[in-house]
Structures are given as C-alpha cells and as structure tokens.
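[agent] plan:
  1. take the single chain provided in the ticket
  2. run structure prediction with default settings
  3. attach structure tokens to the ticket
  4. add a short note for the reviewer (M.T.)
[agent] executing step 1
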Amino acid sequence: MSRTYEELDRRTTCIGELVLRRRIVPGLGPDQPVYEIKRDDELLMSSLVHDSEVALAQLAIPHVGDGIFDVLVGGLGLGYTAWAALGYERVRSVRVVELVPEVIEWHRRGLVPLGTELAEDPRCRLMEGDFFLFATDPSVRDLVHPADGYGAILVDIDHAPDAWLRPQHGGFYGEEALTRIAELLQPGGVFALWSCGEAQPAFEQALASTFPSVTTERIEVYNPLADRDQTDTIYLAKRNGSIPIPTRARPMRRPATPPAERPRRRR
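[agent] step 2 finished; step 3 output follows
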C-alpha cells in the first residue's frame, strides 16, 4: 500500500460500496491527512473541502428564534454539520439520522477526525435510520420528535434536489414533504438544505409555497486538488418571521483551527 494512501475500511452498503480512505496531499504534509468517502467510483465527501457543510449550520442557527432548542440533522457524512451545530450554546441537543450504519460505526471507532468527539458528546445522538421517513412519516412524528419541535432541521444527504442518492428520495423535495418538515419546527425554527451547484428555481418555489421566508446562499469553495472553485448552495426557510440576507458566523464554542488539522483524540 502507498505511504501516501491508506484504505481504512470498505463496506457493501444499502447505497453501494463505500470506501473510507486517508491520504497525504502534497503541500499539506503528513500532519494534515485528508479523509475521503467514496461510493463505488464517486467521491462523496472530503475533509479537505468542507466549508459548505459547516456553513449549513452556521447560516441557519443564528436565525432561530430566542431560547434553547434542539437540532435535527439529516445525514452524518464526516460530521462537520453536526460539529458546527454543537458549537452554539443555545443548542440543547443534536440528533443525527444516518441511513448507513457503517458510517456511524466509523465515527464511533474514531476512524474519522471528528468521530470520537461527536460520539462522546452527551448532547449528540447518532441514530441509524432513513431521515426522510423519520422526518415526514406521521406515524413516528409524535413518538420520537420533541413536543415543542426543533429549532433547526439541517439536511445534507443528496447531491441536489434533482440528484438523489436513491430514487425514493425524490418525494422529499415537494410541497407535501416540506409541509411536514415545517410542522416539526418550533415557532421561529429554520429548515436548511445543502446542495451542490447553483440554486434551483423549482425547489425554491416549493419552499416558498410552504414557508413564509425563503432565501439561498451561494457558497464558493476552493478545491485545491482540482485547483478550482466549486459552487454549493444553502437553502434557508423559516417557519415564521423573516430571514435577512445570510451572513457567515463562527460557532461560538469551537477553536479556530479547522477540524481536519486538529489532532485526533486517542482512546
């Protein structure tokens, strides 16, 4: 095996063959390894380019109404969205729903940079399950969701509203499912969705038919491996009240050092 490349795990999962790998990138050095998750031949995510995953929480949470609240995250990935959400003192708890149990296992085993930190945080709960059923099926709503609703619901699962990891996800991006999402939010609660590429007018319209206040934020992220910028979009929708033009904010209780550069916690 190459000294600059290490395959940490390979699993056949419900969404295809997933590979977790760690490698050294020229210019970053051995103290800043890059962690990547691939599905078959497709790169799903990288610790090297994670700004928009952090922004998903940073753009939404400051717009939640006053008080302490709970956060629901759809999709665990490498954990950056949950990590950013936990940085806010007003966040009472973060519940992360992840379809692929192997991804949760990687975190609990400490195979990814934020894994042990998330798994051991008493405010963070990693749950195996289908987020789209968990969030929109009326039969489970009163059983598992907080009675007063979530302050924020943050979703980073599919590539885009029209590019899904599984065909059955398509129904989530219509008005019926979005209405059920809105019902899970407390007054002043915010729904936010990550997407690659530019904003899609059809999905903006579906959001506007459900929420009184909708906006989008275009995120430009530099990818040093491709030597180019990539465009992501954060959709923001508020149950009531309005969302001003988004402004980036740092989590309040996190160090300035990016997660990929921080030393891993030893067990």
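[agent] step 4 note for reviewer: Residues 49-255 form a domain with the Rossmann fold fold (CATH 3.40.50.150).
[agent] ticket updated
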